[in-house]
Amino acid sequence: MLCLAAGIADVVAEGLRGLTRRVPGPAEVRQELRARGELALRRSGAAPEAHMEVLARRAAARLRDG
Question: How far apart are CA 49 and CA 45, in angstroms?
Answer without folding.
Answer: 11
